[in-house]
Design brief:
This protein is mostly helical and 185 residues long. It has 7 helices and 2 strands. Helix 3 (36-51) packs parallel to helix 7 (160-184).
């Protein structure tokens, strides 16, 4: 088997494993959601929410978080496309394939912003007081990191208490970001 066939076969096997009908819903969700990009996106969004100036409206914060998340996503897609386009191990990777792969792999950066933006929208729409929506958006980031940490350890087949410790450790990163806000403001 030549290098091109081997690389194509390996990519197909990777996708097939995660999307196979026999893969459980958990395995498919875990494969799609627990990515470096979703973890990084959650941290970025939490940091953006923390770093906003006091007194900003939830609508202004929502727009800033959405726009900045989009810019980070575009930059990540661009960088990944450039990095993966061309020849790798003798295999030609066309621009369209590199772009498609970059969009799929970078989606976690955008997905990570959805729930915190939703919490901010509750404040912007008057469903919640703005201060409560702000705090909710911060703690949603912590909760998302907790879940991502749990899923990452569960995927390894770790026992429930190891998953819990991993989830708490991952969520602590979100708490540290919030504490930094309190310390520096």
């Amino acid at each position: 088997m030549d290098a091109e066939s081997k690389a194509t076969s390996e990519r197909a096997d990777e996708v097939a494993e995660a999307t196979a009908p026999t893969a459980s819903l958990y395995q498919r969700l875990r494969h799609e959601l627990v990515t470096p990009e979703s973890i990084y996106g959650t941290i970025i969004v939490s940091a953006l929410i923390v770093l906003v100036e006091d007194g900003e409206s939830d609508f202004s914060l929502l727009v800033a978080v959405a726009a900045t998340s989009f810019v980070f996503w575009v930059a990540h897609v661009f960088a990944s496309t450039v990095a993966h386009h061309g020849k790798r191990d003798g295999v030609e990777i066309p621009l369209g394939e590199a772009l498609g792969r970059a969009v799929r792999h970078s989606s976690g950066l955008l997905l990570a912003a959805i729930i915190p933006i939703g919490a901010l929208a509750l404040g912007a729409l008057g469903v919640l007081p703005e201060d409560d929506a702000y705090v909710l958006a911060l703690f949603v980031g912590v909760a998302v990191l907790f879940v991502l940490g749990w899923l990452a350890f569960a995927e390894r087949g770790s026992r429930w208490f190891v998953c819990l410790l991993g989830a708490v450790g991952t969520a602590l990163l979100g708490v540290i970001v919030i504490l930094l806000k309190a310390f520096f403001h």
